[in-house]
Amino acid sequence: MPGINMMPSGSTLQIPLDACTNFSGKAGNAQVTLTWTDPKDKYATPEGETAQDPDQLVSVWDHTVLVRKTGSQPAGPNDGTVVVSSSVRNQYQSTGYTDTGLTNDTTYYYGVFAYNKDGVASAGAFVNATPMAGTPVSSLAVGTLIKINENGAPVEYMVVNQGLPSAMYDTSCDGCWVLRKDIAEKRTWDSTNNDYKNSDIHAYLNGNWTSRYEAGILSQIKQVKIPYQNGTGSGGSVASGANGLSCKIFLLSGYELGWTTSDNLDFPRDGAKLSYFISGTSSSANNKRIANYNGSASIWGLRSPSTGGPGLVWSVKSNGSYNYLDYNGTDGVRPALILPSTALVDQDLNLIETAAQTTALLAA
What number of other Cβ atoms are within 10 A of residue 345's Cβ? Predict the structure, then answer.
């Protein structure tokens, strides 16, 4: 057959396989995860491949080696350190091989080479990656969704402010503000005087709710002071951040969502506008955007009382409008918290959990 060097049975053809494909590397903290697709066996003709004719096999895959090198990409399978040799075809196509124990901020060059049963290596496929310590949450754009584990499962939280929004808060509030994306629980205020500090919600969030987090996460959540006022219906002064409610987990207020008294709302200024939200009425795009993150619950309760009555609290409804409700019953609440600017997320925006790991990353 023209162009095909057909050899007698048992002879070595020395025909290399095609190079591996879909080779990629994803950097993490002191590690790189690599995926690739091993080549198919090679046939003498396309017809032979279609028919899977064993008589036309000229190169049969045996194994693939992953080679690591610093300074430049490997020139061949013997140029660098072989970090893994796989004899299971496409073993690392989906889950990938994770090369650990690397030095952060050092660029590593990788090559994969497929060997056939005659011991001939294919051309290489190449990629490089630079492991990094986590990204500080202070560098994340407002609106970014990060993931924080609750009971071991990641839950999305939205960055709603970077830094201290106003002098209304004490300096402990200077950090990265995050709000749970979906409504999480249904709890009720004390409807007698609608006092957030003494309500079931506040006690639950800073009691049972905190048990959802690992110790390392809890150590990073800042103890902060938020201004608040109970709903006595008599108006009165608003507690400043300096002498407000000290807690780890809290609810946002109407002012933090950008509502103002110009909207003819009867609640105290228990907060200051957060940068994710814009001032506006119930028909504003902002409030519709809030509603889009409400999850399945129809109402998102806030901590702002209605000063018109002791049992009334302001809420965001599923259609994005605001209203006040009589909290003799229960409605959805979305916890908020503040992370220090030194808290870190990994490449997938998961909050790095353990205090020891965070300390090590900051020192790296």
Answer: 21
- Per-residue pLDDT for 286 more than 70? no
For 121-150, write each residue's pLDDT tens digit: 999 999 999 887 888 899 999 999 999 999
Residue 168 has pLDDT above 50, yes or no: yes
For the chain, domain boundaries: 21-129, 136-339
Q: What is the pLDDT of residue 288?
A: 65
| Listed residue (128, 104, 103, 105) closest to 34, CA to CA | 128
- Which among 104, 88, 216, 236 is positioned nearest to 149, based on CA atoms? 216
C-alpha span between 33 and 193 (Å, rounded) = 55
10 Å Cβ neighbour count for 165?
20
**How many Å apart are CA 76 and CA 113, to the nearest integer?**
8
CATH annotation of 21-129: 2.60.40.10
Question: Nearest Cα to 349, choosing from 86, 159, 189?
Answer: 159
Whole-angstrom CA distances from 261 to 102, 144, 267, 286 are: 56, 29, 8, 17
Tokens at residue 171, please?
Answer: 């300096």
Distance CA 71, CA 81 (A): 13
Closest residue by Cα to residue 207 from 194, 220, 218: 218
